[in-house]
Write a structure and sequence with these properties.
Elements: H1 2-20, E1 31-39, E2 42-48, E3 57-60, E4 65-71, E5 82-93, E6 96-102, E7 108-119, E8 122-128
Antiparallel strand pairs: 1-2, 1-3, 2-8, 3-4, 4-5, 5-6, 6-7, 7-8
Length: 130
C-alpha cells in the first residue's frame, strides 16, 4: 500500500511539473531593438537603451509584453509618423517567438520571429507568418 501511495504521489508530481513548463525565455533577445539593415530575407537589429521615436523598433519584455514602434498610418511615403503598438509574445522554441500585436487600423496581427543569431548588441531575425 505504501508503494502504491508513493507511486501515485510521484506520478502527480511529474504531471504537474510537466504541465507547467513553458519554453525557456532566452534573455539574449529580451530588450529594446532598432532596425539597422536588411540582408536578403532577414532583418538586422541593434540593441538600444529605449525604443526610437522616428524608426522601426520593438521591445521584448520578460513578462511577455511586446511593444512595436512602427508606421502609424496607411501611407508609407515619407515623412512617416510612428506610434507604439502593444501586444504580447511567447517563446515557441529556443529561437522562435510568436508575436501578437496590432497596427494603426486596429487589426490583430500574429507573426513569428525566427531568431537566426543574437550576439552582443546585434540580432538577426526572419519574420514569418504562422
Amino acid at each position: 500500500m505504501k508503494l502504491f501511495k508513493s507511486s501515485i504521489l510521484f506520478l502527480v508530481l511529474c504531471i504537474s511539473m510537466g504541465s507547467c513548463s513553458k519554453n525557456p525565455v532566452n534573455n539574449d533577445y529580451v530588450g529594446h531593438w532598432e532596425i539597422t539593415s536588411y540582408e536578403s530575407n532577414s532583418e538586422i537589429y541593434e540593441r538600444v537603451d529605449a525604443l526610437p521615436s522616428d524608426n522601426y523598433g520593438f521591445s521584448i519584455i520578460k513578462d511577455g509584453t511586446f511593444v512595436e514602434n512602427k508606421n502609424a498610418g496607411w501611407c508609407g511615403t515619407p515623412p512617416i509618423c510612428y506610434d507604439r503598438f502593444g501586444g504580447s509574445w511567447e517563446s515557441v522554441s529556443e529561437n522562435m517567438l510568436e508575436l501578437n500585436t496590432s497596427n494603426w487600423s486596429e487589426t490583430n496581427i500574429i507573426f513569428n520571429f525566427e531568431i537566426l543569431s543574437v550576439s552582443g548588441d546585434q540580432m538577426e531575425i526572419v519574420r514569418t507568418i504562422p
